[in-house]
Amino acid sequence: MLLLRAAAHGIADRLETRVGAGRGIAVDPNTPATAYIAGPTGTWQSLNRGATWTRVSTVAALTVAVDPTSSRNAYVGTNANGVLKSTKGGATFVASNVGLADQRMSRAGAVQMHRFEPNTLYAGTEGGGIFKSTDAGGSWSPINGSLTELTVFGLAMDPNDRKVLYAATPQSVFKTVSGGL
After folding, report:
1. With bands split at pLDDT 50, 70 and 90, how would you rate the model's confidence at 38?
2. Architecture of 20-176 per CATH?
3. pTM, entire model
4. 121 has which bridge partners?
5. Mean pLDDT across the stretch 45-52?
6. What's phi and psi for 28, nearest 5 deg?
7. Which of 159, 98, 103, 150 lies closest to 124 in space, CA to CA?
8. Measuring CA to CA, how many Å separate 118 from each of 66, 73, 112, 137, 167?
9. For residue 127, which of 140, 145, 109 has the smallest C-alpha distance?
10. N or C end of the chain: which has fewer CB within 10 A?
């Protein structure tokens, strides 16, 4: 993966690292010097605005999200192991998969934290649709309702409306105005 850093006078320096092809990236909203990259070689963390990177998980990852209220909490959607959670600022990650145990739901391509309710998360899976957790990833329940495509690669919350969630699938974009209830 090639990373670019803005340098003086608008010149970009090439920064190369062995993170592999990045699939997801998140900057800690509480500590902007901290960033995460999810990729095929695992999850990588920078504590110095991308100057250096350290692998914090070796599990192939697709997406990463950081708790907007606590830098200690980060979530990673993986290629085959569901969702991993860190409560130690990325120092360690553990499985957070109760309700995602079915093999077809183990590929979590999207993880979205609720902006207004930090204990609420959404996971978009390949073949299982969307799952919701209201206990900070402790357990997950499907919220597919009228979702007709069960492979979800992207999720986004409306920043101003706590009930609006968008889901991107290979063929369409879906929207709920009920927060998945």
Report:
1. very high
2. 7 Propeller (2.130)
3. 0.85
4. 113, 133
5. 92
6. -65, 115
7. 150
8. 10, 10, 10, 10, 19
9. 109
10. C
Q: How far is CA 151 from CA 4, 20, 97, 110, 172, in A?
A: 32, 24, 18, 10, 10
Question: Quick one: CA dihedral 137, 141, 144, 149, positive or negative?
Answer: positive
Length of the chain counted residue by residue:
181
Q: Please state, in angstroms and rounded to a whole number, the distance separating the CA atoms of residues 121 and 116.
A: 11
CA 36 to chain centre: 10
Query: What token pair was written down for 114?
Result: 């609720």
- Residue 111 corresponds to which tokens in the numbers above? 């993880």
Whose structure tokens read 């608008």?
A: 10
Cite the beta strand spans of the chain per DSSP E.
2-6, 12-16, 24-27, 35-39, 42-46, 54-57, 61-66, 74-78, 83-86, 94-95, 108-113, 121-125, 129-133, 141-142, 154-157, 165-168, 173-176
